[in-house]
Structure formats: C-alpha cells, structure tokens
Amino acid sequence: MNFSQTPLIKPAQHAEHHIVASILDGTWPPGTLLPAERDLAARLGITRQTLRETLQRLARDRWITISHGKPTVVNDYWQAGGMAMLKTMADFPEFLPPECVVHLLEARAVFLPACAEKAVPAHPELFLSLLETADTLNEDPAAFAEYDWDLQMRMARASHNLIYPLFLNDFEPVFAALGGHYFTEKKGRDASRRYYKSLSNAIGRKKKVAPVVRQAMEESIEIWKACQHT
C-alpha cells in the first residue's frame, strides 16, 4: 500500500482512507496487529493525535479493536462490523467480493416488501402519483437509478417505522454505485418498468403490494447475476 498523502483532503481523511484500503486489499487482513502508533503516524505523515482520533473512529465502526496496553488488531469486519461499514465500502467497490452485491440485494428483497406493505396502503394516492411519472423515464441509467432509489426511500419514510429509513440510508452509497451499473442493462430497465406498472395496478385494485415488490426484487437479483456472466 502506497502511503503517500493524497492532496486536497484532510490528514484524518487521508489516514482513514489508507487504513481501510489496507484492510480491504489484504495488506492488513483480519487478525493483523497494526504497527505501533508512532511508526504508523510516521508512515502516514500525520500527527499521533490525528492518528488516535482516526483509530477511535475506525474502532467505533468496528474495523479494529483497541485495547489499552495492547496492539490494535484488525477485526473480521464481515462478522464484527455494522451497517456503517456499507458507507465506507462504497468508496472501495474494487475490493468488494462478487457475492457481496448479491447478498445486499437479497437483504433488500426481505426488507423492502415489508416496508411497502406498511407504506403503500397508508398513502395509496402518493404512490400512484409517483408511479405515474415512471412513464416519463427515458433510457438514461442515471435517471432510472435516481427514480428507483426515490421510490424505495418514500416507501421507507411513509411506513411510519422509525428504523426503516435509518436502515435504508446506510444502503444509499452502495445502491448509488450499483444502480448505475444495473440500469445500463436494457433488461434491468425493462424489468423495472414492468415492476412500476404492476405495483401501480396492485395499488389501484387495492391488492397486497408485498408480493409484487418481492417478485421484482428477486428478479433484479437474477438479472444482476446474469449481467455478471456476460
């Protein structure tokens, strides 16, 4: 790992970026003892105080474990980490294992139908109005990604469950990165158009929306898998 400091970012940001990158790229795998504070600060070109603050933030997010009088150890972040790691990992997509994306989409397939089942019946007109605008979407992948994310967030916020928006907010950076790739595929855009239409029909007929959302989420997983093999 090259520790030369990137210009135009704060020393603490520089330190955090390089420590996390070193963990994700395998330079410091889980179980590794980090270099002594003095040595690590010198290698990163920052003060020891800045390093301490950085390490405390990383410990809070469970990348590392700090024990008084002992070396700092790198955690098994997939097992010990929390949702906050998703935001950080979005900055390092090249280090994410292929199955990570599928697992993330599988989590959404469990979460979003329950979210929709609470939100849509309580606010049918809001969602019918939003879904009507889907017909105006052009073939721009960025426009699809933005619209799709907005629909998910509206479901979370309208569910009146305080945890749903917090949960989905942590996915935003990752889905923003994924959406641009997914919607470059015509089959992804076509599947979403079918989903929006089916969802609108279910709302208009006062049918349960969870099965519609679940089917669409499961289809998106299969489309993503197929795209990775083409």
Describe the structure.
This protein has two domains: 71 residues, Winged helix-like DNA-binding domain superfamily/Winged helix DNA-binding domain (Arc Repressor Mutant, subunit A, Orthogonal Bundle), CATH 1.10.10; 142 residues, GntR ligand-binding domain-like (Four Helix Bundle (Hemerythrin (Met), subunit A), Up-down Bundle). It contains twelve helices and two strands. Strands 1-2 form a two-stranded antiparallel ribbon. A hairpin with a 7-residue loop joins β1 and β2. α1 packs across α3, α6 runs antiparallel to α12 and α8 packs antiparallel against α10. The N terminus is likely disordered. This is Regulatory protein GntR HTH.
Strand percent estimate: under 5%
Q: Roughly what is the average pLDDT, rounded to an integer?
A: 90
- Helical content class: 55-70%
Total helical segments: 12
Tally of extended strands? 2
What is the top-level CATH class of the largest domain?
A: Mainly Alpha
Shape: elongated
Radius of gyration: 21 Å
Structural class: mainly alpha
Biggest sheet layout:
2 strands, antiparallel
CATH topology of the largest domain: Four Helix Bundle (Hemerythrin (Met), subunit A)
* Residue runs with pLDDT of under 50 for 5 or more positions: 3-7
Number of domains: 2
Task: Name the helix and strand elements from N-terminus to C-terminus, one letter apiece.
Answer: HHHEEHHHHHHHHH
Q: Strand order of the main beta sheet, please?
A: 1-2
Taking the alpha carbons of the first and last residues, their distance comes to 32 Å
Name the CATH homologous superfamily of the largest domain.
GntR ligand-binding domain-like
- By CATH, the architecture of the largest domain is named Up-down Bundle
GO biological process, one term: regulation of fatty acid metabolic process
Pfam family, one: FadR_C
GO molecular function, one term: fatty-acyl-CoA binding
Domain HTH gntR-type: 9-77
